[in-house]
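hey so u asked for the seq, here:
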Amino acid sequence: MPCRIEDYALIGDCETAALVGPDGSIDWLCWPAFDSDACFAAILGTPGNGRWLIAPEQRVERRSRRYWDDSLILETRFETKSGTVALIDFMPPRGQASDIVRLVRGVAGTVKLRMELVIRFGFGIDIPWVRRAEDRSALLAIAGPDMTVLRTPVETRGENMTTVAEFEVSEGDSIPFVLTYGPSHLPLPKPIDPVQALKDTEDFWREWCGRSTYRGEHRGLVTRSLITLKALTYAPSGGIVAAPTTSLPEKLGGARNWDYRFCWLRDATFTLLALLNSGYTEEAAAWHSWLLRAVAGAPGNMQIMYGIMGQRRLLEWEAGWLPGYEGSRPVRVGNAAHAQLQLDVYGELIDAFHQSRMTELKLDEESWALECVVLDHVAEVWHEPDHGIWERRGEPRHYVFSKVMTWVAFDRGIKSAEKFGFRAPLERWRTLREEICRDVCERGFDRTLNSFVESYGSGLLDASLLLLPAVGFLPASDPRIQGTIAAIEKSMMRGGFVLRHDPREISEEIQPIEGAFLACTLWLADAHVLAGNLAKAQALLDRVTAIANDLGLLAEEYDPIARRQTGNFPQALTHIALVNTVHNLDDARKACDKPAVQRST
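ran it, structure tokens below
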């Protein structure tokens, strides 16, 4: 059985990332990029589907782990009767190749350890051909286009389709294991110095964290979330993946298992604000540039998500040979939702560009021309039904949040034109903005419930409605917003956390009810900040941070009944929301503008 989702740690090189269990096993890695096939897929199956274990042979009496300060260098300590060892795992900043370095250091006494390396390309199914390099300095594993190269002074051998080794470490010893990826048709990647790689990696993360401008009381939480966001950034393009994993279930044993190794437009503005308000203008500019390239072309072809390089065809298929995390099937690769119509993405795009200008981020000269073309398209399609922010796979509906985001598109277009002197059909845009507002307020507000609802004619709620004050549609003091917040708190909370779907819904999907959506809980906190209820907002923030793992990492959802994190891990949107909520609270206490207010200006 794999570890609990929240028991994993993350290491990465800003082009891909691996999950490391507290038992010393790397159970997930897509190589050489986030969207590549996995060569370690044990988290979705068994050790036979690929993993890399280094651990003591004898019983471990106590284990602990930590990240080195302000870094993505993981240290796991194993204490046994005979001694203590430290396993240091990291991925150096990408050089000519991608490397995983594992250093085993003796802390006290002498400890016998075992290494088991199971390479399974193709998401856990392709068994490679393993052989020694001609000079016997490395062990090669090759299958089709993929190759890994293991270099270590420890003698290894083959055993049941697994590369194994037994070795001893005494106090003061340090034994390296370096696994490198390379295309199989090219010469072997050059070896690296693992000690120098450790220093380079530590320097990289320390320098990056040193650029943060956040100095508040929650520095530890914010820094770890920002490091996670940086780790989920594909450095060559600036795209940020939603998570490094696929098919970790939203409900244990269920089938709502999706591939999150792509970049969502939904997260665009929140991501920009989290980066800009923390001092990371370079990353914000790279994310903006990725957005501009990804959506280039006809607005009618705009997608809700793209690949890390802006790829558009994210065809979905099922890896039937994998049993899924704790039996949660199917395991999906690709994401069919990329082809859905979701009107909210147009508002996200225009809002992201507007916020970039407001923070004096240098934009491409073509940005405004693109925005005008997009708004022409939105004028034609805003009244159509869509699949909504949550990518519903049933019949399209008139989702309230989708309509509101088309309002946002025109509102931000108007504000950009007015503030920066751009040429625009302002009267037409103002008329459309008013028409959409009137339509939403008349058809999307239920007077009996005293709340906005999920979709026109529905009596159900939706957590995305919590964003209405944050995007500036109505102020938090408006009785309709106050009623919506009260209705969600009454009907859509479980164990103090917010669900994203109304639990009263009778769904076409016969599935167990999913866990609470952590970003939505933080959106409720933001709504309370805007309404001046700082104590309630702080309590919600504390509740979310309390269920983070020992390293400060959070998944997409939390099951308050099972008391377990669920969904893909770690989740960028959760960490983005956490950063923004901390900024909101801190700045509200200083009577400054806060990110939630920034979105409406």
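DSSP finds 14 helices and 28 strands in the chain. The chain has a mean pLDDT of 95.
lmk if thats what u needed
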